[in-house]
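Email to the structure team, subject: HTH iclR-type domain-containing protein model.

Hi all, the expression group asked for a predicted structure before they design truncation constructs. Nothing fancy, just the tokens so they can compare against earlier work. One-line instruction: predict HTH iclR-type domain-containing protein, return tokens.
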Amino acid sequence: MSNENKVLKTVERTFFVLELLSASNREMSLDELSLLLSVNKTTLHALLNTLVILGYVINNKGNYSPNIRLSLLAGRKNGYYDDLIQKFRPKIEKIADLSGNTCLIAIKSGSHHYVILDYIEKEYKLKDNKKRSPFVSMVSSATGNIFLAYDKKLLSSMRKGNYITPIIEDKIKKIQEKGYALDIREVDASISCVAFPIFDKNKFSAVVTVVTTDNYINESICINVKKFLNQDTMDF
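Reply from the structure team: attached below.
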């Protein structure tokens, strides 16, 4: 017979860690968290590493803080990501106007997923589930394929995990040659997408994706958006 009052220690510790990090206005070290939670550092490190992989926690050289996934789960704003939205919004507004289509910006979240940070809607309206739980696998979309093509550590990690098939390897090679990724009704039969890398001071930092209900992507959109991003790189 199950005991309804039984508390699983791992679950309890996980929530205590998340609550501590959410309540803090600064990063917290492993030693500090271990002391506050009365949990040995080996156990706590394994728990934190799992939360980092899942995208709930950031590990900055051994100092931990909430990631965007935790902020979205709690329905709270995160200053760092608010700043990113303010930084990128003029760019996606321009690209949405330039292409006449819905445009979104995505950043990496955890080891194998990305999160939609912000979007401008035109004809195509993003589905509600994308807005509420916008975490998508890297291998399942044009947006994710851009992350794979331009994030060497991510690609290496996913190769080791046997996530990268020969078909995806071929896609990555073509993306690196062209500078963008196409998805013509492959993932969702109702839309087509073209995704581009965004660089901040010559470092790959995000992906911008144009979404249309058409069954093709006009080549002029690819050329014009790529040209705009290349010209505007220094402003990011």
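The chain has two domains: 9-74, 79-235. Residues 72 and 132 are 8 Å apart (CA to CA). Ping us if the truncation boundaries need rechecking.
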